[in-house]
Amino acid sequence: MGITSGATFLLGFLLLAHSRKVNVMANIFLGLFVITLGLAIVEIPLFYQKISLTHPNLFEMIGLIRFLTAPFLYISILYFTSFSKKFEKKNLWHFLPFLIFLIFRFPFFITGKNFEFSYEVGRVVFFVFQIVLPLQTIIYWCLSFRRLQNHLKNVHKFSSSIKKIDLSWLKYFLLVLLFIVTGWLNLIFLSLNSLIEFTPFIYLLSVFFLAYFSLQQKEIFDFSKTELNDLSAIKEYKKENPKRVSETRMLELNDKLQILINSEKLYLDNDLSLPKLAKKMYANCNETSFVINELYGDNFYNFINKYRIEEAKNLLLSEKYNQLNILGIAYESGFNSKTTFNTTFKKLTGFSPTEFVKSNTSIVEKEF
Fold it and tell me: Could you point out which of 38, 107, 184, 255 has its C-alpha 20 to 30 Å from the C-alpha of 227?
């Protein structure tokens, strides 16, 4: 536990230092989450060393800080997945449970005595104390997971390459965290020793996992302030909603879009984004997104990658590009990830790139 808690504190402070560079607010709250997680880990050996008897105030405060752990993680995910780059006062309410319990325990910190209750009231208070923290953790876990699911849908609206910004590592961390929470609930309610023995090892692995991916994470919304405001104005597309763009304007924008796609092959730009395309069309993101939704029945990500796959199919069958491997073909057709290329190719054609080449080679041989 000592190594795990030490590694956790180190990662927390690294994230706070790293926050000056990218994903500022997200990394600050992720760092705070990791530090509070470290305190929760160190609480266990402190308990067995009877620190709770010699320093009850310290032990009590560590227990109260647990009420900050889940909110810190959720707010971090909130900023990872939000266009906003500044702390918003509306997020302060997430700290209300901590504040309530801090006020409730305040007499203990001053006098060393708790509030006095009748037996029946005391049982209710004890039950509330026992159930609130697990309940808070489960609720915030669900909110965090749903937020990441929605983020995946949102990035498809404005990016043609999502591998580095889809935050899949955070989703995997949440799944690991679910196991940790299960172990923690077991510690509180069941005390199954076989599960407890594995908990420190899982803690340590999850800390290293989080350290590697969090410190490598690039800026999610790497756009100017104007572009961020433009992107935030994009509304959810629904067929039954009134049209956001007039027919004349829509046809005008579609003509520009076709020139950029078919003549200039703008989809070959590995870092093509909705703001970049909108700028080329002399339109805003909302208009450009609507044209793609309305006329092509697709989001930006799928629209661009369909053209990239068509380009890749031509390159795979071209003798001129025989010297290129699959990764080379992927880059030449606009992708910046072999995994994304293979997945998208399979989804749109029903074949892997290799299977596609083999099937078409056999067709050519039959024709001869």
Answer: 255
pLDDT at 328 over 70: yes
Residue 140 contacts residue 71 (beta carbons within 8 Å): yes
Please check whether residue 72 is in contact with residue 29, taking contact to mean a CB–CB distance below 8 angstroms. Answer: yes
* Closest by CA position to 158, among listed 99, 228, 66: 228
Measured distance between the N- and C-terminal CA atoms of the chain, rounded to whole angstroms: 70
Alpha helices in the chain (DSSP H): 2-18, 24-48, 51-54, 56-80, 96-111, 119-158, 168-189, 193-216, 225-232, 247-258, 274-280, 285-296, 300-316, 326-332, 338-349, 353-367
The whole-angstrom separation of Cα 32 and Cα 53 is 27
16-25 pLDDT per residue, tens = 876 567 888 9
CA triple 250-251-252, angle to 5 deg: 90
What are the tens digits of pLDDT across the range 174-224? 998 887 777 666 665 555 555 555 666 777 788 888 888 988 898 899 888
Q: How far apart are CA 236 and CA 234, in angstroms?
A: 7
User: What pLDDT does 363 receive?
Assistant: 46
Secondary structure letter of residue 160 according to DSSP? S
Res. 225 pLDDT band, cuts 50 70 90: confident
CB 41 within 8 A of CB 8: yes
> Would you state the torsion angle of the CA atoms of residues 303, 306, 310, 312, taken in this order, to the nearest 10 degrees?
110
Specify the residue for token string 């104007």: 226
CA 314 to CA 318: how far, in whole Å? 6
Give bridge partners of residue 159 from the DSSP assignment. 273
